[in-house]
Amino acid sequence: MAKEEPPSISKDLQELQRKLSLLIESIQNNSEPPRISLFSNPRVSELGSLSSQVVALMKSPVGQYLDRHPFVALTLLVFAAMSAVPVGFFLLLVVLTFLVAFVGVILLEGLIISVGGLSLLCVLCGLGFVSLIISGTIIVSYMVVSSLVNYWFSPRSFTQQNSSGDCQLAMKSTDLEGLYQE
């Protein structure tokens, strides 16, 4: 007793296969993907516009500069991630003081925004310095680990073995004995 698929399912599969082939073709041609809605969820279709924005950013002079300078890109990414919370608190402070200004405390608003602005400036300068240090630490760690991995797993020539089959360490110890005899 084999169940046969209704004709609507095969039509749906053919439509899905057509959409998938269009998407693969656009990826292979390195062009903007077509606006195909595979699902009825509008949030899924928003991902297509996000990828076109990323492509547009990477084609801009800023994107090309960041592509050529990954340390600067990493520093900007760390700075943006770390400064989101202080900027959010500052914007909350501005909104709250704006509401207080409607109540009638205009002089207090200017003072609080000035103090908050100076505080934000100090925090962002500190975060910029910290993000530079973190980015530098990440880059140096990457270089050290990469060098160690290349050193540990690089092919070494064993052509300098002596006639008795001892390792290079034995050759070095005999060279040191020759130094002491002179």
Automatic annotation (TrEMBL):
Protein family: Belongs to the LDAF1 family.
GO BP, sorted A to Z: lipid droplet formation
Protein name as catalogued: Lipid droplet assembly factor 1
Record's bilayer topology term: Multi-pass membrane protein
Species for this entry: Equus asinus
Alphabetic keyword roster: Endoplasmic reticulum, Lipid droplet, Membrane, Transmembrane, Transmembrane helix
Entry-linked Pfam families: Promethin (PF16015)
InterPro entries according to UniProt: LDAF1
Protein's UniProt keywords contain Disulfide bond: no
Subcellular locations according to the entry: Endoplasmic reticulum membrane; Lipid droplet
Main subcellular location: endoplasmic reticulum
One Gene Ontology cellular component: lipid droplet
Transmembrane segments: 76-108, 120-145
